């Protein structure tokens, strides 16, 4: 290919004249409006005419130096003439410069393998990573997919939202949204990202519209290790996923829920600690009251039978915040106090009223009698008087 040859495009409508080259693979093709269009060599085919539309004859040998100089001079003069002739004077005296005309040519988007799965990221890069306490930060939106994206990015201030950036981002590209100072970090803590995806001039799989709110942790901007290497930048970056493998990241809702759970857990923890303190204090008071030296006298029946009511309502005035295990230990403490006081009184009869219930307290009393008070005999108390809710103990 040579400057001045007429060419046409293989995969595009149109063509023009070669006006220059960029590197080994890019051909600059001047169209009829005077615009230079960069095209790949593989996408251009030569029409066998020269700049003057005469038949282009291929040479079989190498041209002599004078011919090369002459041809270059001729081509340069032709290009300059075309540049000068591309300017026109309008009726009002203004100059019509092709450089001022709207660009109507847009090369097709380059797609990559595996790019039909949407991956969109929000990235923050410090201008000077060594001066995190003073540097400014750049905000980027990364479109790591084969889709065009129309994006709207906004930040929150109290209940109001402020537009940061709105526009279209091409496939497999990134775009700078803004640059902000460190004192603007509080305004970046909640960011809204809305996306709509499509492809141009080809069929595509429809993607759901995205609307999500990200919570940006401002504390991370003070930590060097959170800025990591990535395939998108040469500099270390802090990257948040907006869409990952077609799945929208609901970071804000998850974080809000985590905050609520953490707050509830903290309140519950404090309540449990307070309840335990109260239960411990109550338990100490009850133990002191049940000490054989201070224990309240129990009702004595005929034949010197002692009746002990182990119902929790008879032992404690208030059971709020006490667990079942604390309540059971309180009842067993009362049982042990009475047994310790009377274990040396042979022939002493004691009726422990524990109630029927699920039988947990009765089983615990029988276990105590079998292991700790083996010299005592026990049986069900009078059914007529207590039903199945009492145990008679006889000290031997």
Just give the CATH class of the largest domain: Mainly Beta
Count of spatially separate domains: 3
Rg is 45 Å
**Count of helical regions:** 6
Characterize the main sheet: 6 strands, antiparallel
Q: What string, H for helix and E for strand, traces the elements in order? A: EEEEEHEEEEEEEEEEEEHEEHHEHEHE
CATH topology tier name of the largest domain: Immunoglobulin-like
Strand tally is: 22
Mean pLDDT: 80
Q: CATH superfamily of the largest domain, called what?
A: Smr-associated-like
CATH architecture of the largest domain: Sandwich
**How would you classify the helix and strand content by structural class?**
alpha+beta
Q: How helical, in percent, are the residues?
A: 25-40%
Silhouette: rod-shaped
Q: Beta-strand level of the residues, as a percent range?
A: 25-35%
- Unreliable spans are 50-61, 291-297
How far the N terminus sits from the C terminus, by CA atoms, comes to: 122 Å
Walkthrough of the structure:
With 396 residues, the protein is of the alpha+beta class. It folds into 3 domains: 6-100, no CATH class; 120-249, Immunoglobulin-like, CATH 2.60.40.1600; 278-395, Ribosomal Protein S8, Chain: A, domain 1. 25% of the residues lie in helices and 32% in strands. The strands form 5 sheets. Strands 8, 9, 12, 15, 16 and 17 form a 6-stranded antiparallel β-sheet that branches. A hairpin with a 2-residue loop joins strand 16 (233-244) and strand 17 (247-248). The protein starts with 5 loop residues before the first strand and ends with a strand.
